[in-house]
Design a protein that fits this description.
Chain A: It holds the Pfam family ABC_tran. The structure holds three protein chains of three kinds. Chain A is an alpha/beta fold. Helix content of chain A is 35%, strand content 27%. In chain A, the strands form two sheets. Chain A has a six-stranded mixed beta sheet with strand order 6-7-8-3-9-10, with helices on both faces. Chain A has a four-stranded antiparallel beta sheet with strand order 2-1-4-5, covered by helices on one side. The longest helix of chain A has 14 residues. Chain B folds into two domains: 36 residues; 239 residues, MetI-like fold. Helices cover 74% and strands 1% of the residues of chain B. Chain B has a two-stranded antiparallel sheet with strand order 1-2. In chain B, helix 3 crosses helix 6 and helix 4 packs across helix 6. In chain C, a hairpin with a 6-residue loop joins strand 1 and strand 2. Chain C starts with a helix and ends with a helix. By secondary structure, chain C is mainly α. Chain C has two domains: 43 residues; 239 residues, MetI-like (MetI-like fold, Orthogonal Bundle), CATH 1.10.3720. The chains are: A alpha/beta, B mainly alpha, C mainly alpha. At the B-C interface, helix 1, helix 3, helix 4, helix 5 and helix 6 of B face helix 1, helix 3, helix 4, helix 5 and helix 6 of C.
């Protein structure tokens, strides 16, 4: 397995509060890696540092090496928009643009100077298992879709740009079980083409879809390994307690 | 009987509050009734679309209507881009530092500055220093300055309501900050922005004090529409007809008609704003 | 669009947005400088003390008199009169809307108050002339009813929407737990309102009053049209008065630019500016106090 995305001695603080402490982690190509851990452990923060979402906040301070293959993600000469094109992201709450379904996909293509014809949009929607449901209402405002459909649209929007990595921040936390299963199926399908890192609160979900699991606690990585190993034979006591549901 | 006293007292007390509410409503009804009942006889398409004649004792209000429309357009052209842009700066870019706090304090203070002082400022800046003379341009810009703080405040309120996840959605697909604002944030906030803009402009359209010495004219003998010339405007026309005209009693019906047209213009703009607000609330749910 | 173009646009607009933010500072600074500069020109000719304490305003007399005391008193008289009417009515209405009105009635009353706020001041002034003035004249047996009382009533009408809206927000924001506690010990709705709700909302109500005062002091057209504009020393509500705003409005149209009289009007405006500034800042202070108090 080839390493696609990695962090090396990553420290991150918001103001005076240190949120991530000397994180060393790598994510393999065409694998799904789940980041688990109690609320506030820094898993979302870690995820967001890969596509530089913290750039928005002047009080966020980052040092360490984050790399996409050999590309330094925080190299000043690398445009942040380029990084975000190559590392897509899907958020906790579906956040489609207040535009039509079609425009939701086409917009990202257009600003990134990619072909944005109907065929490209269709392909992205098909990949996200959404095409059959919306092909007749492409002009409809995306906000009228159901929650699960909106989230799949957001995945289609990310996929349309042909990223190498897709970061997912608890993509199912706001959805019902049926929609959740549908999205899990989609995610499993997507790993053939993309490298996927997913933050989740749902232990079953991690076990169902993740190849590898990383457990974080208080801003540190406590344990990582193959999902089955982590869940069946946790080495660390904190990990064991967490997956047994004793806190979180 | 003792147990009844609090009940009677509370009825009296309740009536006091009801009475004050009724009195406030009574004020509104008197205003509307007086203007509508006495102005209605004058109101007709002919009145709106014919120019004042015979020393303004006959004819209609076309010249002031056109003046007010054009004036409000200048106000809009100036205050909307500047106001929205400033609100974007405050909500999307500004950090919480002394500069931002000073700008915010300035905006609050500006919205409390009496309109007559804006008139003086317009006179000093546009009429004299920039040499626009007493003109539609000078008056429109003065009203634009007056409108600025309201447009900034209402626009920012609309922008604050846009959740961060909407911004992140655009940034995450590689949009620049400007693209995010232009293509996603502002369009999402549009109904809210429009509500504030239209309400502010309706207020500007009814203002008199700021245009008193920046360009409003007693009477103009031709169609207006030149930026560098004086103009007639509905509120100023009403002021003139009711206090400055040589035969005040004779022109009173025209004054009522003018007041009614002005009130209709302002209310129509308010209705438009309510429509946007209604749409906005519906979108949010 | 090429990447470079996108980035330069991004940077360009960052500067544009910031520039408009700074424009606001420039605007307030400009207004302030204009007032100070012109007032300074005025005080080269007239002693500040004579201006503030002078008992006579007669700039066009043989020996021009620039005492602004009668103007300040006129403004004060009309504003006080307006507040005597507007404060009880405003708070009463606010309490009614917040505590007694059904949601359906609220949906009628609130737009009605917005409608009242939307009516241009010149229309209110006009009604002062045609409706109020003859009635005041009849009642008090005067030749006309253009006087301080007329102005005060009109200003009350103009300040009411501000007072009602802010006071209603304040009363509405009082936590329900306070009221429930009061009902729990057997208090009636009215007792609760007077002893619990109004005191809790008090800073917000003071804010409402201060904002109303700011509005009334700065209002020009209604007082210009309805108060008679006699620049004598006011002695009562039935006197014709000439407020600061009206003085500026009337005389600015007639004076030659850059004369002492012209500068004098700016000096009045400076005093006016600070009076409204103080009223509004007090209002804001009390609003913040109220928010802090109830944020917990």
């Amino acid at each position: 397995m080839r390493t696609k995305l990695s962090a090396e001695s990553l420290n991150l603080s918001f103001g005076t509060k240190q949120v991530l402490k000397s994180i060393n982690v790598s994510f393999n190509e065409h694998e799904i890696t789940a980041l688990i851990g109690p609320s506030g452990c820094g898993k979302s923060t870690l995820l967001r540092s890969f596509n530089r979402m913290h750039d928005l906040f002047s009080y966020a301070h980052i040092d360490g090496k984050l790399k996409l293959e050999e590309l330094d993600l925080y190299d000043k000469t690398v445009p942040v928009t380029e990084i975000r094109k190559r590392i897509g992201m899907v958020f906790q709450k579906a956040n489609p643009f207040p535009k039509s379904i079609y425009e939701n996909i086409a917009y990202g293509l257009r600003i990134n100077n990619l072909p944005h014809g109907k065929d490209v949009v269709e392909k992205a929607l098909r990949e996200a298992f959404l095409w059959e449901e919306v092909k007749d209402d492409l002009k409809m405002p995306a906000t009228r879709l159901s929650g699960g459909q909106q989230q799949r649209l957001c995945i289609a929007r990310a996929v349309a740009l042909r990223p190498e990595v897709i970061l997912m921040d608890e993509p199912c936390s706001a959805l019902d079980p049926v929609s959740t299963l549908k999205i899990e199926e989609l995610i499993t399908h997507l790993k053939e083409k993309y490298t996927i890192v997913i933050v989740t609160h749902n232990m079953q979900q991690a076990q169902r879809i993740a190849d590898k699991t990383v457990f974080m606690y208080l801003g540190e990585i406590k344990e990582e390994g193959a999902t089955q190993d982590i869940f069946n034979f946790p080495k660390n006591e904190v990990t064991a307690n967490y997956i047994k549901g004793q806190f979180g | 009987m003792r147990y009844k006293t609090p009940k009677i007292a509370s009825i009296i007390e309740w009536s006091t509050l009801l009475l004050s509410t009724c009195l406030v409503c009574f004020f509104l009804l008197v205003v509307l009734w007086e203007i509508i009942s006495k102005g209605a006889s004058k109101l007709s398409w002919e009145f709106v679309f014919s120019v004042p004649t015979d020393g303004m004792t006959k004819g209609g209000v076309f010249t002031p209507v056109i003046g007010t429309v054009l004036l409000t357009m200048i106000t809009a052209l100036f205050s909307i881009p500047f106001g929205v842009s400033c609100a974007i700066y405050l909500n999307e870019y500004a950090e919480n530092n002394w500069l931002t706090r000073t700008i915010r304090a300035s905006i609050r203070n500006l919205s409390g500055v009496p309109s007559i002082i804006y008139g003086l400022f317009g006179l000093a800046l546009f009429v004299q220093a920039l040499q626009f003379g007493t003109s539609m341009l000078a008056a429109g810009l003065t009203l634009g300055l007056l409108s600025l703080p309201y447009i900034i405040t209402t626009t920012e309120e609309a922008l604050v309501r846009i959740p961060n996840s909407t911004r992140e959605a655009a940034l995450a697909i590689g949009a620049t900050k400007f693209e995010t604002i232009k293509d996603v944030v502002v369009p999402s906030a549009m109904p809210g922005i429009l509500t504030g803009v239209v309400l502010t402009l309706s207020r500007a359209a009814g203002e008199t004090a700021p245009i008193l010495f920046t360009g409003a004219a007693f009477y103009i003998n031709r169609s207006t529409g030149y930026l560098n010339e004086e103009f007639m405007a509905l509120p100023y026309h009403l002021y003139m007809l009711s206090t400055q005209h040589q035969s005040i009693e004779e022109v009173r019906p025209i004054a009522y008609g003018t007041a009614l047209v002005l009130v209709i213009v302002v209310f129509l703009m308010n209705l438009t704003a309510f429509y946007f607000r209604y749409k906005y609330r519906k979108n949010e749910n | 669009m090429r990447y470079k173009t996108r980035i330069s646009l991004d940077n360009l607009f960052k500067i544009v947005f910031k520039a408009t933010g700074l424009l606001v500072l420039a605007l307030l600074g400009g207004i302030f400088l204009m007032l100070i500069y012109n007032s300074f020109s005025f005080f080269l000719d007239v002693r500040p003390l004579d201006f503030i304490t002078g008992m006579e305003w007669n700039p066009t007399g043989k020996t021009p008199k620039y005492g602004m005391l009668p103007l300040i008193l006129s403004t004060t008289l009309v504003t006080l009169g307006a507040m005597v009417i507007a404060i009880p009515l405003g708070i009463g209405t606010a309490a009614f809307i917040a505590e007694y009105a059904s949601p359906r009635l609220k949906n009628i009353l609130k737009p009605a108050i917005e409608m009242l706020a939307a009516i241009p001041s010149v229309v209110i002034g006009f009604l002062g002339i045609v409706v109020l003035s003859p009635r005041i004249a009849d009642m008090a047996d005067l030749s006309n009813g253009l006087n301080a009382l007329n102005g005060a009533i009109l200003l009350a009408i103009m300040a009411l929407p501000t007072i009602i809206t802010v006071a209603e927000d304040a009363i509405h924001a009082v936590p329900n737990t306070y009221k429930e506690a009061s009902y729990g010990v057997g208090a009636t709705k009215w007792q609760t309102l007077r002893k619990v709700v109004i005191p809790a909302a008090f800073p917000g109500i003071i804010a409402a009053i201060m904002l109303g005062v700011g509005r009334a002091i700065g209002e020009t057209m209604t007082v210009l049209m309805a108060t008679g504009n006699a620049s004598m020393f006011p002695t009562g509500m039935f006197d014709a008065v000439k407020t600061m705003t009206a003085t500026i409005a009337i005389e600015m149209g007639e004076v030659p630019y850059q004369t002492t009289h012209y500068y004098a009007l700016y000096a009045i405006a400076t005093v006016l500016f600070f009076m409204t500034l103080i009223a509004n800042m007090l209002g804001e202070y009390f609003i913040n106090k109220f928010r802090k108090y109830h944020a917990v």
